[in-house]
Amino acid sequence: MTHARGERAALCDLFDSLGPGAPTLCEGWDTYDLAAHLVLRERRPDAMPGIAVRALAGHTASVQQRLKARHPFPELVSLVRKPGGVYGALSFLDTAVNTLEFFVHHEDVRRAQPSWEPRELPADFEQLIWKRVSAGAKTMLRRSPVGVVLHYPGAVGSRAVVLGGAKQGPKVEVIGGAGELLLFCFGRQAHARVEYAGEPESITRLKNAGFAV
Fold first, then answer.
1. Residue 125 and residue 188: Cα distance in Å, rounded?
2. pLDDT in tens, 116-129
3. What InterPro entries does this protein map onto (predicted)?
4. Are residues 75 and 21 part of one domain?
5. d(CA 148, CA 202)
6. CA 83, CA 63: separation in Å to the nearest integer?
7. Cα–Cα distance between 33 and 179 in angstroms, integer?
8. pLDDT of 126-171, one tens digit each?
């Protein structure tokens, strides 16, 4: 099983365990909303652009609400559990696109519950996540108000740091495991188990910045 499929299955198991109405880290969304979002993302290509384009967000929100109205929560979870659209037909695309997506949303549900603890990820998964983070950090952190140095002590070889954020001015070093750095880059600063090094004012600005992907 690929890591994308494993995270998908684990998230759906958690959905089944918690039921609709449980909190998530996605602002304004509970588990029902998140399940509808994931179904929309894979099975309603007409509504996908609104996920990223604000001018089209109204249509996307409307489709998401209609999915909730049409499908009881267990039905939506069943739809999430099996890759849909092109991801169901092309497993390599599921791996390329959904590995990080489902890891982050799995953690969005896990870390919104009481007494959560970070998971210890398999070494190959950590390295895969770091490879994606190091390749995409500049894009993910483009809205950061300060420069960011991501530091993953567990990186294989010499590529342990990646620069992102503002090019001028002070920089903040963010240190942690690959999964934690990914959550940080996705705007989950308050729930990412990372350490910071730098000027206190810059660290505060970075912690409060809104650069969620």
1. 19
2. 999 999 999 999 99
3. CHP03085 (IPR017519), DinB/YfiT-like (IPR034660), Maleyloyr_isom (IPR017517)
4. yes
5. 10
6. 19
7. 24
8. 999 999 998 998 889 988 999 999 999 877 654 566 777 777 888 9
Q: Is 213 helix (H, G, I), strand (E, B) or coil?
A: coil
The pTM is what?
Answer: 0.92
Residues with Cβ within 8 Å of 213's Cβ and at least 6 positions away in sequence, in order, are: 140, 185, 186, 187
Predicted pLDDT of residue 158: 47
Answer with the one of 65, 86, 110 that is the final residue of a domain. 110
156 inside domain: yes
Rounded mean pLDDT of the chain? Answer: 91
Q: How many CB atoms lie within 10 A of CB 90?
A: 13
Among residues 115, 113, 85, 124, which one has the least CA distance to residue 2? 124
Indicate if 101 and 197 belong to the same structural domain. Answer: no
Same domain, 10 and 106: yes
Spatial distance between the Cα atoms of 161 and 128, rounded to a whole number of angstroms = 15
pLDDT one-digit tens code per residue, 87-101: 777 788 888 999 999
User: What's the order of all strands across the beta sheet hosting 195-197?
Assistant: 161-165, 147-151, 171-175, 195-197
> In terms of domains, do 102 and 142 share one?
no
Task: State the pLDDT confidence band at 57, using cuts at 50, 70 and 90.
Answer: confident
Other beta carbons less than 10 A from residue 180's beta carbon: 22
Q: Under a CB-based contact definition with an 8 Å cutoff, are residues 93 and 86 in contact?
A: yes
96 falls within a domain: yes
Residue 188, domain extent: 123-208
Cβ pair 14, 105 in contact under 8 A: no
Residue 116 is assigned to a structural domain of this protein? no
Predicted confidence at residue 86, as pLDDT, reads: 77
